[in-house]
Design a protein that fits this description.
Layout: H1 4-9, H2 22-45, H3 48-56, H4 60-87, H5 94-110, H6 116-129, H7 132-157, H8 165-183, H9 188-198, H10 201-204, H11 207-221, H12 224-252, H13 258-272, H14 283-292, H15 299-316, H16 318-325
Helix pairs in contact: 3-15, 4-5, 4-7, 4-12, 5-6, 5-16, 6-7, 7-8, 7-11, 7-12, 7-13, 9-11, 12-13, 12-15, 13-14, 14-15
Length: about 325
Amino acid sequence: MTSNTALKKHPLHSNTAAPLDAKERRGLVIRMGISIVLVAWLAWHLDLSALSARLTTLDLGWTALAFVTVFAAVVISAWKWGLILRTRGHPLSYLRLLRHYFVGLFFNNVLPTTVGGDAVRAWETSKDTHEVPEAVGSVVTERLIAGVALGITALLGLPFIEFSSRLWSLVGLFLLIDVALVALFLFPKVAEGIVGKLVPPRLTGLHESITQTVQVVRATLKNRALFVKVALYSIAFQILVAAVNTCIFKAMGVPVSMAQCMIFTPMIFTVTMLPISLSGFGVREAAYWYFFSQVGVSQADAVAASLAFFVIVGISSLPGALLFSIKRPEQTSVPA
C-alpha cells in the first residue's frame, strides 16, 4: 500500500501541470484540424435552415425525458465503477462515486480529448484510495469492459428490426473492433500507452506507476464474476445512452425506433472514441449522419440529433463543475 505521505509527494497531485510537449502539441493541432475540416464539410453539405428548425422546435417533454435518462445512465455507471473499487479493496461511498463521475463527465466535455475527464476522475479517486495505480486501474478497467458492452448492445437491437445481411455484417464488424480494442490491452506497449493517457509520465515521472496500473487492470479483468457484473451494468448503461438518442429523435418528430438507436449508438461511440478529433467534434456528427441515414434519417436531422445529444450531456455534466469547485469533504470509510 502507498502511504498518505507518499501520495502527497506524488507529482500526480501537484497543482501545477507541466506544459504540453512538442508531440502533444502536434497531436492537438492535428485533432483540431480534423475537427475543423469535418465540421466545415458537414456545414457545406447541410441544409442549415432545416438544422436550425429542428433544434429550435424540440418537444419539451421528450427533451426533459432525455435529461432524466442521462442522469439514470450516470447513476448506473457510477455504481458499476464502484463495484471494481470495492472488489479491489477500496470501497467508496456511493455519493463520493457520483461526485467523481460527474466531475469526470464535466471535464470530458470541456477538455480537448475524450480521456481528459477520465484522468481527472482517476486523480480525484486516488486522493481517496491513497493508491494511484488502483484509482487509475479502476477507471481503465471500467472503460475496457464498457468497450465490449458497446458491440453486445448493438447485437441486442438486431432481432427487433427488419433483417438485413448488410446490417448484421456491420454490427458484427463493430463487435469485432470493440473486442479487438480491448484485446490490445494484452500487449504491454499498448497497455502502457492507454494508461499513460491517464497517468502521463510528465506528471508522475515514474514508469513504475504505469506498470503497476497495468498489473491492476489485468488482475481485475481476470475476475470473471466481476467482469460479468460490470459488463451487464455496462450494457444497461449503453441501452440508456441509446434511449437518450431515441428521446431526441422523438423530440424532433423523426421516426427512429429504440432498437435502431441501440444498434447505431454503440457504433457511433466506437468511432468517436478514436483519438482523431477534438472531443469528437466533426467525427460524431459525421457518424450520426452516416449510420442513421441507413434507416432514412435526413442529413439535417442526424446532425441535429448529434448536436442535441452533445448539448444535453454537456448541460447534465454541469453539476461536475460545481462539485469540483467545492472543497472536498473527507471520505467516510465504507465496509468492504
